[in-house]
Amino acid sequence: DAAGAAAAGGRSGANGEDGGGGERGTVVLHAILEAGASAPGGGGDADPLRDGAVRGRVDFMGAEPVAFPQEDTGTVSSEDAESCRKMLESLAPALDFVCPDAHLFEALDREVWTAEGTRCASVRDGERGSVVYAGDGGGPPTALPVATLRTPDGRPTNPTGAGNAYSAAFAACLGAGVSATEAACVATAVGAVVCEHEHLPPWSWGVLERVRLGAEEVGLKVEALSRQAAVA
Question: By the 8 A CB rule, do 87 and 95 touch?
Fold first, then answer.
């Protein structure tokens, strides 16, 4: 969270070194933000991201805005969409990426999600995969299919938290300097691993290898889709 990122940055020296005199690592902030009009705390989730002290200690910052669709229509209300738009506009100068779900993404114009200064938007759509949009109006979107689940019936054991895990992995990979598409491949694999477990996965070397193989699978699928599109 923002406080944790600030604390991590605060332990680093002003010259980019840690307290022991060595170089500090990259500080990445992935913030899950309640973005609806009636969000608990009146939208205060985003306040730390506006804090200059926090922003000055974070190298790479992104947001996962959350506004739930209405049960009767399956769409995000206009009030919630407007609340999210205002939040994003207030944060846009500081955000490197945004990672909404498809319901919220579709409630606003693409330009809101890829405002000037925002590197990319990755849109999560559950079993349909995700789509990465380049920021600043650059390039066509890239669609990514899901990774194959290694469960007895090929269905999720428990999908709770898979979207959050996707966003966090996407943030970590972007912060490490990989491309948005590569980051989304890894994020897709991380989300799949979460779906394969009843509770949070044990992040053992075996599970990390599962993530690597899943990301490789998704990357090959993306390449195949790209070749098909070129032929068409």
Answer: no
Token pair of 203, please?
Answer: 């992040």
Q: What dihedral do alpha carbons 7, 95, 103, 47 form, nearest 10°?
A: 50
Half-sphere exposure of 224 (CA within 13 A, CB side): 8
Q: Is the pLDDT of residue 222 over 80?
A: yes
Q: How far is CA 224 from the centre of its chain?
A: 24
Could you read off the pLDDT of 52-83 as tens digits, one per residue? 898 889 999 999 999 989 989 989 999 999 99
Tell me what pLDDT residue 10 has: 33
Instruction: Say how many residues make up the chain.
Output: 232
Domain boundary among 55, 83, 118: 118
Residues 153 and 229 in one domain: yes
Contacts of residue 151, Cβ cutoff 8 Å, sequence gap at least 6 = 157, 195, 196
